UniProtKB/TrEMBL annotation:
<keyword id="KW-1133">Transmembrane helix</keyword>
<comment type="similarity">
    <text>Belongs to the binding-protein-dependent transport system permease family.</text>
</comment>
<dbReference type="GO" id="GO:0055085">
    <property type="term" value="P:transmembrane transport"/>
</dbReference>
<feature type="transmembrane region" description="Helical">
    <location>
        <begin position="218"/>
        <end position="240"/>
    </location>
</feature>
<dbReference type="Pfam" id="PF00528">
    <property type="entry name" value="BPD_transp_1"/>
</dbReference>
<feature type="transmembrane region" description="Helical">
    <location>
        <begin position="268"/>
        <end position="290"/>
    </location>
</feature>
<feature type="transmembrane region" description="Helical">
    <location>
        <begin position="16"/>
        <end position="36"/>
    </location>
</feature>
<feature type="transmembrane region" description="Helical">
    <location>
        <begin position="76"/>
        <end position="98"/>
    </location>
</feature>
<feature type="transmembrane region" description="Helical">
    <location>
        <begin position="110"/>
        <end position="131"/>
    </location>
</feature>
<keyword id="KW-0472">Membrane</keyword>
<keyword id="KW-1003">Cell membrane</keyword>
<dbReference type="InterPro" id="IPR051393">
    <property type="entry name" value="ABC_transporter_permease"/>
</dbReference>
<keyword id="KW-0812">Transmembrane</keyword>
<dbReference type="InterPro" id="IPR000515">
    <property type="entry name" value="MetI-like"/>
</dbReference>
<keyword id="KW-0813">Transport</keyword>
<dbReference type="GO" id="GO:0005886">
    <property type="term" value="C:plasma membrane"/>
</dbReference>
<feature type="domain" description="ABC transmembrane type-1">
    <location>
        <begin position="73"/>
        <end position="289"/>
    </location>
</feature>
Length: 296
């Protein structure tokens, strides 16, 4: 203890070590170690029972030539492109509505955020019921009130299935982005709007020249988080479409799961997972670089 006190007097940052060590141990066990363990598995022919032998980079070479890997990665990218702007803009619009000084403001906030507290199983069950072709609520409304005679198979055609997945994800997660935007909106000084009104600025001008510019920092954060969340999509696709029709909506995480646990190829699954991890790191670094470049 005396030696530690002398050393911490010389190096003050060591005083924080006893407080950081418990978290560092947990962080290493549950995050850092699995990353290196996964990379080690990716260099082997590994099954759920045992290690079958070292294969080097064979799993990665097979991944490059695997059309199913590129199809699932393309499906994931498709979802990112469709969902990210939709959910980011949706969160902003809901935050602007919930921030209005009107009666029922609290009800709006609760109603917009409520789906986010539901589990993905509940959300998926609701969507499956809503979009059933023969007994679904949406087709019933279209046929009863809009005269649509043709039965629409929402989950049987790729483009419609993507619409269902994006719609389900939007309804489920947009409340989280709304809360982030709402917090940022309430940090904008009210004096900005008062000065703009004195100068004769309209509500639209206040939105374009005060609100939106003030929300740029949080927009970067929301967009980064949404891109990462969208890349990791799995649960709602698995429960709503199962990756179908065929494999046209199967994301990369689902393909990794099927390869690892259904095809009993843990080594190849680990190789795809590690490659996917590198892709997420690169995407995040590019976005952070672009943000820092715009701020300069």
């Amino acid at each position: 203890m005396k030696f530690y006190n002398q050393l911490s007097d010389r190096y003050p940052f060591l005083k924080a070590l006893p407080f950081l060590l418990p978290f560092a141990i947990v962080y290493f066990i549950f995050l850092i170690f699995p990353i290196f363990r996964g990379f080690w598995m990716s260099l082997h022919r590994w099954t759920m029972i045992r290690n079958m032998g070292f294969v080097g980079l064979d799993n990665y070479l097979y991944m490059i030539k695997d059309p199913a890997f590129w199809e699932s990665l393309g499906n994931t990218l498709m979802f990112v492109i469709l969902s990210t702007p939709t959910i980011v803009i949706g969160g902003l619009v809901l935050a602007l509505l919930a921030n209005q000084k009107i009666k029922g403001q609290l009800f709006l906030k609760i109603a917009f955020f409520l789906p986010y507290v539901l589990s993905v199983a509940v959300i998926s069950s609701i969507m499956v019921y809503f979009f059933q072709p023969h007994s679904g609520l949406l087709n019933g409304i279209l046929q009863s009130y809009f005269g649509v005679e043709e039965t629409i198979f929402w989950l049987g055609e790729a483009n419609l299935a993507w619409f269902v997945i994006v719609f389900a994800t939007l309804w489920w997660t947009v409340g989280f982005n709304m809360v982030l935007y709402l917090a940022a909106l309430q940090d904008i000084p009210e004096s900005f709007y008062e000065a703009a009104e004195v100068d004769g600025a309209t509500k639209l001008q206040q939105l374009l020249y005060i609100t939106l510019p003030s929300l740029k920092p949080i927009t970067w954060v929301v967009t980064l988080l949404q891109i990462i969340f969208s890349f990791k999509i799995f649960s709602q696709v698995w429960l709503i479409t199962g990756g179908g029709p065929g494999t046209e909506t199967r994301p990369i995480v689902q393909y990794i799961y099927e390869t690892s646990f259904k095809q009993n190829s843990m080594g190849y699954g680990a190789a795809m997972a590690f490659a996917f991890f590198i892709i997420l790191v690169i995407v995040s670094m590019i976005q952070i670089y672009l943000r820092n470049r715009k701020e300069v």
